[in-house]
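[User]
If only I could read backbone structure tokens as easily as an amino acid sequence. I have put the entry right below:
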Amino acid sequence: MTDSVKLCVDLRSMPEDARREVEVHHARTQDKRDSYIGERYPKAITVTSPLSGTGMELKTFWEDAKPRFVQSHIVAALNLPNALTGHNCEHGTSIFAAGEAGLELLKHRMVCDGVPGAAVDMLTTHHVSLHGATITYLLCCADEKQANANVLKMKAALRILGYVPTGNDSTNETFDVPRNGYVITVYHKTDFSHCIFSNEDLAETLKARARCIIRIEVYMQGHFLRERGLDALESWRNAYAEGRYEAIFNELVRGLFKLDVVLRHKAPRKEALKSLTATEREIVLAYLAGTPLDALPAIKEGATADARSKIKSKWKKTIRDKLRIDITIPWEQHQKLHHADMDRLVRYPGDYHPDAVTVAECFCQENWSKLRKRLRKLRSDKAARPTTA
């Protein structure tokens, strides 16, 4: 299941009197004379998960700014593994289950605020949209040393490919690669300060395993999801059966490493060069000798920067297809890329399934039905309890 989601729950299917019971916090900007200026706006509040005791941030919106406004939507940022089990050391990847879990948590919150249980029951996954979601792919390594080394290799490979991974101030090696509409974060977990564990023995087991797991988090922003028609929670109901998680991994993660063609790190043999045209062979030999890209034969003949750019694109594709060499990467760096190693490392891992030792402590396919039952029972018990005057 996924690591985190930003959910928007549409409350307008509930009766108006029930919606007015939904907790809402707002604020207004004040000038230096403490006079209110501008319209009031929703204020984020933090509430506590009834299962784990960890915090969840939410905002409640309304339909207008009139004195008797009516609550219309709740937007909540939730880390579901933490909210349900107290930690995210091991978990699966289903966005639909995460969204359903988030809805159950918000329904419980509303009942606690005094919203009638019958009105809350009107809300279903059809009333939920996604303003953001993080799919987390877990790659298991033999030990912590290997996990750390592989993260460093991935970071080095991305630099060679022309990206600028940004580091985080953390207890481990962590890097981010922002893209258009999504961000990829890679690390192995060593900071457990935000985790709550049921007992110390299991805590040590979960921590030890987490240190050996590379986490590749793909955070997809709201506009990215909307542009692809993936913002409705219901659109994720059959995502595994449709192969969507693997498709996203291949496009956004393997695509980041440009693994559609596995580039070589050893110079091509003479036999391979014989298949090239005379011009291609001249370009490749000059490239292998360390000639800068703009000074390569055929490319340097371009009269303008635009002309040279078009020529570069032409020869890059041709030579890449024939020799698995990208002439836009200096050969000295090309040899250090070890693209075949990246190809073996960055493979779709499928959903993560904890073993019998930790499964009862994790948000995963095997444990989700039990967690959902617990949440629903907590809500029904609260709804049935008479309110005090």
In short: The first strand starts at residue 4 and ends at 10.
